[in-house]
From TrEMBL:
InterPro entries: Gfo/Idh/MocA-like_OxRdtase_N, Gfo/Idh/MocA_Oxidoreductases, GFO_IDH_MocA-like_dom, NAD(P)-bd_dom_sf. This is Oxidoreductase. The lineage of its organism: Bacteria, Pseudomonadati, Pseudomonadota, Alphaproteobacteria, Hyphomicrobiales. Residues 7-123 form the Gfo/Idh/MocA-like oxidoreductase N-terminal domain. Signal peptide: none annotated. One of its GO terms (molecular function) is nucleotide binding. Residues 134-241 form the GFO/IDH/MocA-like oxidoreductase domain.
Amino acid sequence: MVKAIQIGLGHWGFSWSKEVIPKVPSVEMVGYVDTSPEATGRVQEELGIDPKLCFNSLEDASHRTDATLAICTLRTEAHYPVVKRCLELGYNVLVEKPFTTTIAQGKELVALAKAQGKVLMVSQNYRHQPAPIAAAELIAEGKFGALNMVSIDFRRHGPSQGYRYWDMPDPLLADMSIHHFDLMRYVLGDEPVRLSCRTWNPPGSPFRYDPSGVAMIEFSRGTIVSYRASWMNSGPVTPWAGEWVMDGAEGQIAWSSRDHFRDKAGPDVLTLLPLDGKAEKVRLDEVKYPDRRGTLNTIATVLDTGAVPRGFSSGEDNLGSLALVQGTILSASRGGDWVDIEEIMG
């Protein structure tokens, strides 16, 4: 059993408090932290949290609880200073994505976690779903031979689906595409080497910054990923993880994941399309702790056992996904010029 505090009880943080944390029995909550009395009052009133477990500062919580894990569910710009202070205070940390806004900040936190002997994990929750887990295993086994091309489509229409962050910088690449970028690295078991990206803001869009984009990403083993994504697409809605077609020398692996729309959840789907045979729908294994529950259960298990599983999204590993975010933003600012990942990583 891992004792934890949660820092950040706003809209998304409250979702963690209500929908995620109570469903992971290996975690015992001993504190909730937010500077807003309204936020701490909400968890008390709606979730029945003991007021004695609520604090208005991290420092106060650190002195009055015996937690070893800090669950950081704050706005992105607060990740770096809060995670840094948590590590300095001796906490292991699970932090929402993206875990920093710059590569330099990310490297600093990774180095600090190592110096402190603590675990720093980023909640890349899309990894904890049946289809990407199965796809990653198939690719690792060499199913259908060497990969040639991967096509990914993500389509949502923000104005008609309750999206509300109209003024968020890089609403596609930084807030949404990081999930897809992280899945690319996880499923392919490979790292990107260079990329090209263009973004735009369609006429009539309520977004202040570009909600649509296309990117071409080259990975070290030669696989090319073609990525198309938009918050302003009026076509058929895709699952949150997108629609994937992975083309190999002897066939294709097609899959989709996190098919949630208007409070309806559909199953993950994965289909094998051999070059000379019939399409075969693969029966996927159930994931006991899916999505965000998966990230929380994983870090609790690592802290309990010391064993780090395959695909663990540590801060160090997640630098690669953050680099894809920074690289696509940079390429888009240069009109789609190719950007080497080495330039981003420094």
